[in-house]
Amino acid sequence: MSFLRTNHHSYAVRSWSAVAGLLLLAACGIGAGADADTNSTARQQSSASTPDRTLTVFAAASLQKPFTQIGKDFESAHPGVTVRFSFGGSSGLVTQLSDGAPADVLATANEATMDQATAADLVSGQPTPFVSNTLQIVVPQDNPVGISSLTDLTKPAAKVVVCAPAVPCGAATLAVERAAGIDLKPASEEQSVTDVLGKVRSGQADAGLVYLTDVAGAAGDVKGIDFPEAKAAVNTYPIARLRDARDAALATQFMAAVTGPQGQDVLKAAGFAAP
Amino acid sequence: MTQLSVPKWLLLPAALGALLVAVPILAMALSVDWSNFSSLVTSEASTDALWLSLRTASVSTLLCLLFGIPLAAVLARTAGTAATLLRSLVLLPLVLPPVVGGIALIQAFGRRGLLGSTLDVLGLQVAFSTTAVVIAQTFVAMPFLVISLEGALRAAGTRYEDIAATLGAGPTTVFRRVTLPLALPGLVSGTILAFARCLGEFGATITFAGSLQGTTRTLPLEIYLQREGDPRAAVALSLVLVAVAVIVIGLTRTRRYSLTAGTP
Amino acid sequence: MSPTLVLDLTVAARDVAIALTVAQGETLALLGPNGAGKSTVLAAAAGLLRPDSGTVRLGDHTLSDHQTRTWVPPHARRIALLAQDARLFPHLSALDNVAFGPRSQGQPKRTAHEAAARWLEEVGMTAYARRRPHELSGGQAQKVAIARALATEPAALLVDEPLSALDVEVAPDVRDLLRRVTSDLTTVIVTHDALDAALLSDRVAVMHAGRVVEHGETGRVLSRPTSDFGARFAGLNLVRGVTSGGALRMPDGRLLHGIAESDLGQDGGPVAAVVAPSAVSIHLEATHGSPRNSLAASVVDLEPHGPTVRVRTDLLSADITPAAVAELRLARGNRVVLSVKATEVHLHRA
């Protein structure tokens, strides 16, 4: 359903083709049965209590756990409100939004992607930084090659995985490498922190660089090791209301919930630091 | 054109189905930044990825043939519960999400996997190596070869094999000179499908093999990565992959016609 | 000389139980309707099917013996099989098809091709050596298949309905070729056509529901079947004599005109004629008309034969309607005139 929806919009926005329009029409016609079903159940759920209000939040994947919690708290504090999340890579979310995906709030994992959203005129008002995140060395629980510092990652025996430079966590990795004056020879440059964490968790890799929050989320399977050079790349997470928000007031209330003390507690518990 | 032999109303859904595939591809081709196309696709990262993809897909396809032909033959010529179970098992990667395949491969061949230490002893370092890419591709692509060849072998039946045996040909000769040549169209299309699947492999590779330029980062991985860094390059590289796929499909079509022309 | 083939076997799944011996160089016709189990017998002899019990022996070699668990696989039996359809390998030329057997037996390519060329010549298909099977007509393909089977120099030959898939015009040609090549070869020919049996075999075994119901010399079984089923199914007139100007001269000097299935050879050579009883009509007096053979005979016996009555005479049997029997007031010992069109008389060299 969400897959279809995304595609609808990416097609609809492109004005080049009557053909695409035709296809869209047809797709709607054919898919109408399934779509209508899903929609009507959603409507029934929310119409149980009035007023019927839905808030859609696009948020960086690393925010999944705390935001889900904040969303639940928000729903209980605001009866009749449903908060829907779409978690994903920050750049991917911005691409979806510029292709016309409907959402009220955007929270990204770094300021660069938020700047892109601002530049694309998607954002209403000034983005607010609400948490920060730093890199941490992650090793399997038994730390097989005895890593204790960033320079240990250059040990020839160590299979190290990091994020690819093209993605935000990879940019942060490059920054700490420069700060420490080392040149890592990773066994793999992964697409996302999740992939890095997965490789370390499964023991495929001996060490990796991920965010503190990721280590917190995988506690028990892996160990996190702080290193001073991490300060060179502190990632600030901004949150913003979107220009096309259907419920601007509700969006603002949600942002307040995130930046407020209760929301910040949830985020801290997940390993995030104050902005 | 010959007289249309299908109900006319089929044309509408057929056309919509064709459009569903054609429109996105066309849209992508239209959105390519043609002025920078050559520089986008000839960057070192891109050519490394394309070359790696072609190399690994070729090796994996050979492995698919090496294991898949015997598997298809066994499946096509046996019946019973054991054969049914074996077939379900062999075809499993076809229905599994590739990422699940990748996770399974880690459990088997990963450094801490079932066979990881054995492979270590043999001096085989699978983790993060091109070997891992080949294993992942073979894992996901082999069912395409097996299913296609098994179908061809079943369709060919044993009539010619029986005659060959009464002419004094032993089982190996029959297999080599009768069974395989008769199933050749299925073998060729299966091989090309397997190659195409290898070329497009993403999920199992990124899960199991990792992503490092020139070693494990195949074209699909490069495209996915470029989406984050340089979306224009991602689109341009996607088009390259489409071109390779079209060439592969074209090969299947022409081969199929030339082969079936020979049968009455 | 081609060895003796002994088949004594049962196949439970198809309810087949038979015991047959094909003597050295002899051709046995296995005659019966579809589903009688004829092809099952061939498959068991070729080794394509394992009998549930019994033995298959070829000369001194035991090919299959249930008790001693002997089993010789098909490729080691030296028994060639000719199928109903030519079943030429579609991916090989006619020459390569014929060379397949010799090559499989380990002959070098060149020797195998030489042998194949010889056999193609033998069946008159040299001009088609380079053709692919789909470029051959049914009759041509069947001839190549015959060459292919013989190129393996088999100890015995099994033939399954060789002519049933062929057009009536080409069937005599292929039949003649088969007759020629099987003359010294121990052969089993499966057929549901009594004419094939008459023209190709030395002996006939009639099969019904998995059992041999009648077995004997071809002329005897076809003209004087002893079993009900044999009578219903077989029943062909076989007349022997010598050639005389394209016709058959019977020992009593009378001529039987017919169609030559093949070159009849020099006058005076032995020939045989086959006539279906349904093609013979009975009159009380001689009729006049050039295409007909008119032959005097005396009635030996009358018996019901399906919806017709089979009238046996001292020369030919005729199937006529009960109404005709009544009209002619036929009885044993009556003198009658038999009439049969020349086109219904199949002449071949004996």
Strand arrangement across the biggest beta sheet of chain C: 7-8-9-3-10-11
Number of strands of chain C: 22
What's the helical proportion of residues of chain B? Answer: over 70%
* Alpha carbon gyration radius of chain C: 22 Å
**What's the tally of helices of chain B?**
13
Indicate the structural class of chain C: alpha+beta
Order of helices and strands of chain B: HHHHHHHHHHHHH
Considering residues with a beta carbon less than 8 A from a beta carbon on another chain, report the largest interface and each chain's count.
A-B, 34 and 31 residues
What percentage of the residues of chain B does DSSP assign to strands (E)? under 5%
What brief labels describe this structure?
heterotrimer, B: 264 residues, mainly alpha, MetI-like fold, 13 helices, 77% helix, C: alpha+beta, Rossmann fold, OB fold (Dihydrolipoamide Acetyltransferase, E2P), six-stranded mixed sheet, 9 helices, 24% helix
Kindly summarize this structure in a few lines.
Chain A has helices at 2-13, 18-47, 64-77, 90-98, 111-119, 168-180, 193-201, 212-217, 248-259, 261-269, and strands at 53-60, 81-88, 105-107, 123-133, 135-140, 160-163, 188-190, 207-211, 222-225, 235-242. Chain A has 275 residues and is an alpha/beta fold.
Q: Can you tell me about this structure?
A:
The complex is a heterotrimer of chains A (275), B (264) and C (350). By secondary structure, chain A is of the alpha/beta class. Chain A folds into 3 domains: 1-48, no CATH class; 51-132 and 236-275, D-Maltodextrin-Binding Protein, domain 2; 135-233, 3-Layer(aba) Sandwich (D-Maltodextrin-Binding Protein, domain 2). Helices cover 45% and strands 22% of the residues of chain A. Chain A has helices spanning 2-13, 18-47, 64-77, 90-98, 111-119, 168-180, 193-201, 212-217, 248-259, 261-269; strands at residues 53-60, 81-88, 105-107, 123-133, 135-140, 160-163, 188-190, 207-211, 222-225, 235-242. Chain A is elongated, with a radius of gyration of 21 Å. Chain B is an all-alpha fold. Chain B has one domain: MetI-like fold. Chain B contains 13 helices and no strands. Chain B has helices at 11-31, 37-41, 44-76, 81-95, 98-109, 116-121, 130-156, 159-166, 171-182, 184-200, 203-208, 219-229, 231-260. In chain B, α12 runs antiparallel to α13. The radius of gyration of chain B is 21 Å and the shape is globular. Chain B starts with 10 loop residues before the first helix and ends with a helix. Chain C has 2 domains: 5-236, Rossmann fold, CATH 3.40.50.300; 238-349, Beta Barrel (OB fold (Dihydrolipoamide Acetyltransferase, E2P)). Chain C is an alpha+beta fold and 350 residues long. In chain C, β5 and β6 (70-71) form a beta hairpin. Classes of the chains: A alpha/beta (275), B mainly alpha (264), C alpha+beta (350). The A-B interface holds A 11, 14, 16-17, 19-20, 22-23, 26-27, 30, 89, 91-92, 95, 159, 161, 164-167, 186-191, 195, 198-199, 202-205 and B 16, 19-20, 23, 26-27, 30, 106, 110-112, 127-128, 206-207, 209-213, 216-217, 221, 224-231.
